[in-house]
Amino acid sequence: MKKYLLVLFVACTGNAALAQNNWKTPYLTKSLSGQSVKEVFVNTSGGSITVSGASGEQPRVEIFIQGNNGNGDLPKEEIQKRLDENYELKVDVSGGEVHASAKSKKDNNWDWKKSLSISFRVYVPANVATNLNTSGGSIHLDNLTGTQQFETSGGSLHLDKIAGNIKGRTSGGSIHVSNSKDDIDLQTSGGSIEATNCTGRIRLETSGGSLHLDGLKGDIKATTSGGSISGNKIDGDFVTGTSGGSINLTDLSCSLDASTSAGSFHAQFLSVGKSVKIDVSAGRVDLQLPSKQGLNLDVRADRVEANLGDSFSGNKDKERIEGKLNGGGALVEVRGGNRVSLTVN
User: Fold this and answer.
1) Do the beta carbons of residue 153 and residue 132 sit within 8 Å?
2) How do beta strands 47-52 and 9-10 pair?
3) Greater confidence, 48 or 19?
4) 189, CA 20 to 30 Å: which among 74, 130, 170, 300?
5) pLDDT tens-digit profile of 142-201?
């Protein structure tokens, strides 16, 4: 094998847990000491990719290889033979860029019993950009600053302590992002999304999974086509919606534009931002507003129940509330389904 340098962790999605358990002794370790690495490019047809900028680690690439199809541990001679016969593995470093690719030499008719799981871990300085692509494995990034672009057709995305321009896509896996900031744009076609302690411009989208949001601050848009949404400690401007699930939001200090076509809705505000707009087609709405803040209310549903106290002035009936809290202020507009319950505290 030539002097390859880089990253790429290959494992069939069905063998993901097995691959993690076998990350003990590298098949090959390549030092990156003395290399001025600024950007990492990786392209693999089926494996996972990990890039870490954590401090205290020597810059290096660790390569782990095992057999697929339950045939995990193989002699080094057998691994080398399969690499030579069935794979093209290339890693080059030039001008501060690391380029890595791994692909099969065979077409779809070859003997998959002889396939390999090729796993790479890359340790680099924190100020490194990435451009990563895999057709089946997961992607892990941590402790990096810069432009990060990554895509997988079937694996999950895991991000922690990432800053910069972040854009990631997966066609079927889940997304986990934490302690990250600046410009975050993440999408999955089928998995759930969990985002914790993130700030900046945040865009999260899933076509079928649920959303779990905690400790987000900034310009936030998080939507799902079918799952439920839960959020806690959201600050800034928040747009969210689901076509089929319920929405449960607590400790809000933000503007809100939220909608659900089928589920129930609950929101509890510590303070209201520029405005609140809630649209619920069929479920119940339970809304708690801060008692000391000036607000304009426009609430409509088949049935409206309200406990507003002496600070409210305006009109109330069983289907509508229109008026002011504490002299008026930001507009709170609710279009509920069968029932809206409104309280101040």
Assistant:
1) no
2) antiparallel
3) 48
4) 130
5) 999 999 999 998 899 999 999 999 999 999 899 999 999 999 999 999 899 999 999 999
What end-to-end distance do the CA atoms of the chain give, in Å?
Answer: 68
Q: Report the amino acid identity of residue 294.
A: G
Say if residues 254 and 273 touch (Cβ distance below 8 Å): yes
Contact call for residues 127 and 108 (beta carbons, < 8 A): no
Do 83 and 89 form a contact (C-beta atoms < 8 A)? yes
As given in the structure block, the two tokens for residue 123 are: 């340790």
The pLDDT value recorded for residue 212 is: 98
d(CA 277, CA 255): 8
Cα separation, 209 vs 206, in Å, equals 6
Residue labelled with tokens 């865009």: 203
pLDDT score of 110: 66
Whole-angstrom distance, CA of residue 340 vs CA of residue 124: 53
Closest CA relative to residue 182, chosen from 130, 237, 145, 127:
145
How does pLDDT run across 62-119, given as a tens digit for each residue? 877 777 765 567 888 888 898 888 888 887 888 888 887 878 887 666 677 778 877 7
Residue-level length of the chain: 345
